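Sequence in, structure out. Go.
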Amino acid sequence: MSRRPESERSDWTDLDLLTREEAHGRLLTEIAETDVRLAALDASDEAGRDLLRSRLRALREAAEDLIDHPKKD
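Output:
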């Protein structure tokens, strides 16, 4: 166990880093759960709907960034 405070320890020492594929899978799960939450919201809760839509956009962008895209010539 490290004697350093947790704030000074490196993530690399924990050896629990996600692969891009694992992170992508977790994001897809979170996207699906957020979709369900959005569908369940009352139509009158526009502020809540806006927050969830914003969250979905951010989650989808993060998931998209983890996918390896072929390079265009």
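Check: The mean pLDDT is 84. The two ends are 49 Å apart (CA to CA).
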